[in-house]
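Batch manifest line 213
LIGAND: BIS(adenosine)-5'-pentaphosphate
JOB: complex structure
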Amino acid sequence: MKAKRLILLGPPGAGKGTQSQRLVDDLGIPQVSTGDLLRAARKAGTELGNQAKAFMDAGKLVPDSLVLALVEERLAEKDAREGYILDGFPRNEAQAKALDDRSIAIERVVNLAVPDAELVRRLSGRRVCRDCGASFHVDFHPTKVEGTCDRCGGETYQRKDDTAEVIQSRLGVYGEQTKPLIAYYREQGVLRTVDGTGEMEAVYRAILEALEL
Ligand code: AP5
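JOB STATUS: finished
ARTIFACT:
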């Protein structure tokens, strides 16, 4: 049986979003990406979105109170009853503890391991669809038509936090605040580390293996 309450853990650019999209199709459970939820809140011009903006543009973590409210609301939705793929959450120990406080246990945490130099290459060439959020890369996963999403036909763009300076800030924040969660989940016995450096297909197969309970 495959795990259905899972976390994809890993540094910025490790492939969490890319791999989550495939898992959504195969496992029939939703992807809950706090980055996507925050970007949607910004686009909608909500109070929360406005408060998150400066933190996101600087590559810093958005305050826990804002993120936890978003996650709680999303996990209460009907489609998340049978399971979910958490992508980009939790990102520090306080968030992980808040997740532990919910009565539903996380079954598997997949840690995608990718070295920094590769992360920088991936993030600086990434293009994202404005409409459906699908992720592409100018060299590794180009769209068939430049600037147009293969999945929904929407326009693709480069994220504002995918610039050299902000990428360095995000990698620093990951090392200080998120990386310690590897040990946190190892101690809980739910962690599996997957080499995230191969072809997308090979990484996906390794993730499916890691999800077997
Ligand atoms: P978020 O949107 O979550 O960004 P992130 O964690 O930095 O992760 P990314 O989306 O950059 O990377 P990814 O691992 O999904 O990689 P992808 O699959 O796209 O967060 C943005 C901001 O929101 C944060 O900085 C923070 O401010 C805030 N935030 C979010 N969550 C928060 C939280 N919980 N608490 C507080 N603040 C929060 O892949 C990257 C590229 O590589 C793509 O171009 C892809 O095509 C390519 N690629 C993927 N796999 C491969 C492969 N195997 N080979 C070659 N290329 C590949």
